[in-house]
Amino acid sequence: MKRVLFDLAALVTRVAIGLVFVSHGWQKWQTGIDSVTQMFTKMGVPQPGLAAGFTMTAELVGGALLIIGLFVPVAALALVAAMAGAFLFVHAPKGVFVGDGGWELVGALGAACLVLAAVGGGRFGIDGIRKAVLARRAQRRAEANAAARAPIDVDGVSHHRELSSP
Fold first, then answer.
1. What angle do CA 85, 91, 95 make, to 5 degrees?
2. Which stretch of DSSP H or E encloses residue 94?
3. Using an 8 Å Cβ cutoff, are 44 and 93 in contact?
């Protein structure tokens, strides 16, 4: 029960946070990199062109990856980096509240992504499905290898199979 609850919580968190990031990333892509670079320049973000490209891509692609549960730790870490930059260079001096330009939204998004990076996205996503499939294959191989090494009973006498090398 505890595992299912974790997987459901991870799914809801991934999808909700991913949708917020995709929305913000899409909004930035629609305005264009030049516009986002200008905005970052006015805010005093270092290397505004590089930061704009990274942020736009991290938000859009990283958010989409969170939603589908693919490469969750990597996507989440990229988003943590984007939120750390937003916190340090834009929002921290303005206080907590988002209505004042503060850091509450980037703090919450960054914290959620840090948790996802640390614990993963759960079983209900592509990463979880891929992990389950690989685990089942490994178990089948182990069972087949164990069966191949097991003694066989011929007329009540136990014999070991000779394993040949290729």
1. 145
2. none
3. no
On whether the CB atoms of residues 113 and 76 are closer than 8 A, the answer is yes
Residues 45 and 162 sit within 8 Å (Cβ to Cβ): no
* Domain assignment present for 57: yes
Q: Give a yes or no: residue 20 inside a domain.
A: yes
Total domains in the chain come to 1
Confirm whether 78 is domain-assigned: yes
Whether residue 118 is contained in a domain is answered as yes
pTM of the predicted structure, to 2 decimals: 0.86
For 90-146, the pLDDT digits (tens) are 999 999 999 999 999 999 999 999 999 999 999 999 999 999 999 999 999 988 888
For residue 116, what are the domain limits? 2-128
**DSSP 8-state assignment for residue 71:** S
- CA 136 to chain CA centroid, nearest Å: 23
Q: For residue 29, how many C-alpha atoms fall within 13 Å in the half-sphere facing its CB? A: 13
Mind listing the pLDDT tens digit for each residue in 48-60? Answer: 999 999 999 999 9
